[in-house]
Amino acid sequence: MELRPFSGTYLTDPAAIWRDLLDGPERVHYAEDLGLWLITRHTDVRNALGDSEAFSNALTLLPIYDMCPEALSIVMEIDAPPTTAAADAPTHTRTRRALRATFPNTSARVNEQYGAIVRRRVDELVSRLVARRGTVVDLVSDFAAELPLLVIVDLLGVPAEDVPAIKNWSDGQIALIWGQPEPEEQVRLARGLLDFWRYCQKLVTLRVQDADAGDDFISKALRYRAGDDEILTENEVASFAFNLLVAGHETTSGLIAHGLDNALSVPSRWERLVENPSGVAAFVEETLRFGPAIDGWLRVTTRDVAIGDTTIPAGSRCLLLLGAANRDAATFAHPDVFDPHRADVREHLSFGYGPHFCIGAALARLEAQVALTHLTAAVPGLRLAPEHASSFKPNVGFRAHNALPVFVETFAQMDDRTPRAA
Ligand code: HEM
Known about the structure:
The chain is α+β, with helices and mostly antiparallel strands. It has a single domain, classed as CATH 1.10.630.10. Helix content is 48%, strand content 8%. The chain contains 17 helices and 10 strands. A 5-stranded mixed sheet has the order 1-2-8-5-3, with helices on one face. The chain has a 3-stranded antiparallel sheet with strand order 4-10-9. The chain has a two-stranded antiparallel ribbon with strand order 6-7. A hairpin with a 2-residue loop joins strand 6 (305-307) and strand 7. Helix 6 (107-130) runs parallel beside helix 17 (361-378), helix 13 (250-264) crosses helix 15 and helix 15 (280-290) crosses helix 17 (361-378). The site of protoporphyrin IX containing FE has 29 residues, from helix 5, helix 12, helix 13 and helix 17.
């Protein structure tokens, strides 16, 4: 079969394809157009994520296609050591321990250490939106894509003037690895990726001299290594920055945009959140399940793996379709219904599962929850531009809206146009 993720239905309505795959007789599928095995059922995806001996992360961050020789030679210059998402034990165990020690990953610790930064950044962006009331604004470029990037640069202590370059490099990385760029574009994106890596190395070099002073993540990671390469090398700290600057924002941007789309495309949902913002946390969780920001994630088999009647040979790249797993009727009641009150929502696999479970899950939830809560209070009359139809960037991993044009209104639609706090 062919998945054709870069065109047609998969771009506008991937859930329709997931449904066909889940309902079909075969438990796993070989996508000939991609050279990837597709794993879709909740139980199979969860097993694969949890079994790091049979399913390795060694190729997770490498392009899904054969790059042209010129792009490949540029990418080969990137000597970023594998850490967390690109590593298997024992490197994974050691680098994940380092990240867990230096990056808060429970909701209490994230709130305590990063809550003020998140709220300040949300306030700034919401105020800017309020100032544009009465106009049409693209919530992707002017809100969802900005917030997580501004937060992650704050956390890493990266200069604000570098934000546009980081955004370009990071978008480029996602297109280069999980997209389908033409050879000329591959070369351009590969050059950007090399520049990005050199930039992250420089960030660390500059911080090495005064690591004692800083409270930012890079300084903390340098203090954690305590000059001992057995604990962590300086290049591994640079590799953390390289990964976090992308993982820390492209994903959460997607979550915020999906949440806003889910809420605004059915106005009664938005109105309920405006009336009762305490429902935002459950709404964000169902958004994660219903249409994850990463809906496909890669592993490679280290040995032959039998799933049902099919044996996936050793050395095969597998695309774990997290989005499909989240729609599996064997795990979720009425899986194609968006239900913010569902009892089974926490079974979703949108942050992965097991040894590689997302380090930033608590931060992502906090950002999305604070963002939606502030927006419902400040711009309760927000509504999607009437001509809008959702479409996504062509990618097998990251599901990102192209745009979300909205009319900004500070008055709620359903009441007597009483002004709300701005
Ligand atoms: C909605 C937002 C996010 C989504 C949907 C998401 C999703 C994921 C997924 C699917 C994985 C792979 C898990 C696995 O292989 O089992 C992952 C890993 C990871 N994520 Fe996230 N992520 C999000 C936000 C973040 C943020 C904000 C950060 C950091 C600031 C982050 C950092 C990481 C790291 C470091 C890993 C690798 C963990 C490891 O391999 O041990 N993510 N994430």
